[in-house]
Amino acid sequence: MQTSKPRVLAEPFKIKMVEPLKVTTEAYRTEVLNKAHFNPFLLRADDVFIDLLTDSGTGAMSDRQWAGIMMGDESYAGAKSWEHLEAVVKDLTGMPYILPTHQGRAAERILYGILGGRGKVFISNTHFDTTRANIEFTGAMAIDVMPAEANDPELFLPFKGNIDLEKVEALIREKGRENIAAIIITVTNNSAGGQPVSMENVKALRKICDAQGLLLVIDGCRIAENSYFVKHREQGYEHKTYKEIAQEMLRLGDAFIMSAKKDGLVNIGGLLTLIDEALSLKCKNLLIISEGFTTYGGLAGRDMEALSIGLTEVFDADYLNYRIRSTAYLGEGLRSKGVPVVWPIGGHAVYIDAHKLYPNIPLEEYPGQVLVCDLYTKGGIRCVEVGSVMLGKQDEAGKLIPAANELVRLAIPRRVYTQSHIDYVLEVFDDILELRTQARGYKITYEPPFLRHFTARFDKIGEITTETQRA
Ligand code: F0G
Fold first, then answer.
1. At the topology level of CATH, where does 26-48+316-470 sit?
2. What is the tens place of the pLDDT at every residue in 114-133?
3. Which end of the chain is more exposed for a tag (fewer CB within 10 A), N or C?
4. Does 63-313 carry CATH code 3.40.640.10?
5. pTM higher than 0.90, yes or no?
């Protein structure tokens, strides 16, 4: 919708069904967070007011998608809903072989299980956690190659998610091209702040892959959001539609992996699409063994129906404009209050530099966890620490080797919260800023051997938070 002057960012949808949110007091939240051992993953969702833990599978479907749910064809083989999904995905990717999966990591397990193995190397701008885990599980190595300037949280670069092409070429020479299993470009680059990747960067990567005979995989669960940035930041794309931009980018890949829980606008679903027939046959075998028959993967007919509609709706210009601008609204609002955010704001989330926010909290006391806990206590807001709790390691003496950055991610579910919810989040940050010098750090009292952030337990340093209080 064109308006002559900038106006308030009114959501381009109206609300037909509501899901009540429980309003709680600070005293209640202090108590339940204590009982959850200061780990918001261990909270009951019902006790959360604004849930910014992830944008994955947390979006709201449209009335057309819900109507599609009722029209789902649950036939085991060759269902109509599968035909609808296959047609939409073929049109989007231009690839002939389409495999449905229950979510993104199932597609990763299948493809990287076949391509990986001991001695193999995968190169990416940044491997997402599950991508890395699926690769390393096969015995292969996953190497991230970002340009050095992308690590500067203050620096504005239009395509801060780009892969470093020179480093890619150097790595191929160093490891030997016969050992490179694939190059993976993640758009937008989730683990690097949801930053976009330019068409120019993917085109250049395609050239490298052609010259070396390497497979190029596009991990594009946020491909529509990436297309928004290409249209508005890259020369030559101003007049293309978002869908045309996505089509052009996906045609540069040999394979496309998608967690449909993001830009598929559904609560569950994934895709693996391929050009090579022989590779697709191997993948289909694994799909049948582990997910389901080739015309449903791990999905119900109704899920496929909703996904085929979601993949069309996500390219709507009014929707995408609202989506990207509403994420920026939160990020820019925080920045203007003096909250240190990763700049520029990416597509699906705002990342806050908790170490800068709490300079008085040492890294060993997890400043990211301090912010995550304070946001819950002050405002019932849930988000995730992406710092030394999630990514830190320990040396032989048990001393923390901190993560590269102490970030906290506020991920925005699609079409779920209104601007007044986001204004509320901004107001809660006034309290956070006011009280930051009094904030206290945390120590870990329990951690599992892997992926500790999900289940770790904490205690607040310098405060008596006893087991008796929790009981
Ligand atoms: N690739 C990327 C870039 C992702 O962001 C995710 C999931 C996956 C693959 C795996 O997909 O969850 O459907 O199995 N990201 C979620 C997040 C979990 O919170 O960022 P999945």
1. Aspartate Aminotransferase, domain 1 (3.90.1150)
2. 999 999 999 999 999 899 99
3. C
4. yes
5. yes
